[in-house]
Amino acid sequence: MRRLVMWDIDYTLLRGGGVASSAWKAAFTEVTGVPWQDTPIFGGRTDTDICAEVFASHGVTDCTPERFFARYVEVVHENRHEFAVQGALMPGVREVLTRLGDDPGVVQTLVTGNVPQVAAAKVAAFGLEGTFDAEVGGYGTDDSVRATLVRRSLERAEAKYGERFLPVVVGDTVYDVTAALANGAVAIAVATGATPADALAAAGAHVVLGDLSDLETTVRVLTAATPPASRSIEVPAAGA
Fold this sequence. Notes:
Oligomer: single chain
Radius of gyration: 17 Å
Helix content: 40-55%
Structural class: alpha/beta
Largest sheet: 6 strands, parallel
Number of helices: 10
Order of helices and strands: EEHHHHEHEHHEHEHEHE
């Protein structure tokens, strides 16, 4: 059985340098006419979920998520070059993606809270657009609940390829871990975001990596012949 490796984007693969957040605020004020007041916690959440919170906290009742997202995507597109300027790939990412890309037993895709167009802009800014089968990904417009994104991605992959996959979710938040576990997927966590390693372990991650800089360890974990046991192992970041 091949593996479907589902990558989160923000603070797992890369950091966007606040470009998407700035675009979100600008688009919101432009579309609704309401000054930005409260910034929600974005990490690990879907754009649909965040949109509902932002509309409610700002008292917006006359704007649809679809209308907002359309303008948000336009603003991101206008400023997409800034991702590579303001942001950066996380340690070891390019090497791990390249190694997995050479493995016929692995299909890589994205499971992210971002809307599809913004997800595409982020990975393209770092030359990674050919790495993932974006058609079978799970995105922030699929549902407000992140676990549903994992399920949708797996369903899309199995429908496209006509085979069953072993799902592996890689992310940096508790949301990524719980979404993986809800779907019977292997949960690989990386402590490269705001969530500390012990919290990722407590959430039930099968493996917690400090980062992806140890190429051999990371690839071994992601392609292990037998899924890791239901216990958490913290592998410190290189040099730690």
